[in-house]
Design brief:
mainly alpha, two-stranded antiparallel sheet, two-stranded antiparallel ribbon, about 60% helix
Length: about 250
């Protein structure tokens, strides 16, 4: 059959080529996951060292602890100053609310993709993503989503993060946003993209820069997912970015 329609087969192979390359990238991504799993084990092994700063003493019986506890296991008295950690799902809920806040920005982004096609607008939209979370957590202690869910981000002394610490905490998301922006800038510079008016035409325009626009952020997205999973398995419900920035996500005091 291919001998009778060699041109069609060649075109079919050309269409499949980006997906074959994507499969190779995903295989490399699995290597990254294995590396991060090893990193998780090391982080768990070093947890005791991290918890030295969280040493507690029960004022009722004088018992010392090298871990965060809500009640003294010796006399059952509540531990003074305990701040309840925010778990995985409440933080997911806060992120969903933050996403809803950005709906107008998403509409503007889509309009820019198919109508305005302005690189300046693209950069301005990206700047909102790159500044919203770090600035809100540094100046107000929480994003709008976290405020709604009554949780906040603090440092090891219970204070709001510095702007530098907030950006260190934001690093996995910063990596993803930067990779996405790079891919979109390459797409916007394509002559074929300037005539795009529909999603189908956009898909055709992305063929040339397929791996740049789609696959580069895949690595960053994998790291973000692994980073967030740490919340479910670590002391005080800390994600990897919390450990790096020495931050804690906790419920606000009633």
């Amino acid at each position: 059959m291919c001998e009778d329609s060699s041109l069609s087969c060649a075109q079919f192979r050309l269409v499949l080529e980006p997906f074959t390359a994507l499969k190779d990238r995903l295989r490399e991504g699995m290597t990254i996951i294995s590396f991060c799993y090893g990193l998780l084990e090391k982080m768990q092994a070093s947890t005791k060292n991290v918890l030295v700063m969280d040493a507690r003493k029960c004022k009722s019986c004088g018992q010392d602890f090298q871990e965060w506890v809500e009640f003294c296991p010796n006399c059952a008295e509540p531990m003074e100053g305990y701040t309840r950690p925010a778990g995985f799902w409440i933080r997911v809920g806060a992120n969903i609310i933050d996403t809803l806040v950005f709906i107008p920005i998403m509409i503007l982004s889509r309009s820019n993709m198919f109508s305005l096609k302005s690189t300046a607008v693209l950069v301005l939209i990206s700047l909102t993503w790159l500044t919203y979370k770090p600035f809100m957590e540094s100046f107000y202690g929480a994003t709008l989503g976290k405020m709604f869910c009554k949780i906040k981000v603090i440092d090891k002394k219970g204070n709001k993060l510095s702007l530098l610490s907030a950006y260190i905490r934001f690093f996995p998301f910063l990596l993803f946003a930067s990779a996405s922006l790079t891919g979109q800038l390459i797409l916007f510079s394509s002559p074929q993209f300037q005539s795009v008016t529909s999603s189908i035409e956009l898909g055709d325009a992305m063929q040339e820069s397929f791996m740049v626009v789609i696959s580069i952020p895949v690595y960053a997205l994998i790291l973000i997912l692994i980073d967030c999973v740490f919340v479910a398995f670590t002391v005080r419900k800390r994600a990897l970015h919390d450990m790096i920035a020495e931050s804690f996500c906790v419920y606000k005091e009633p």
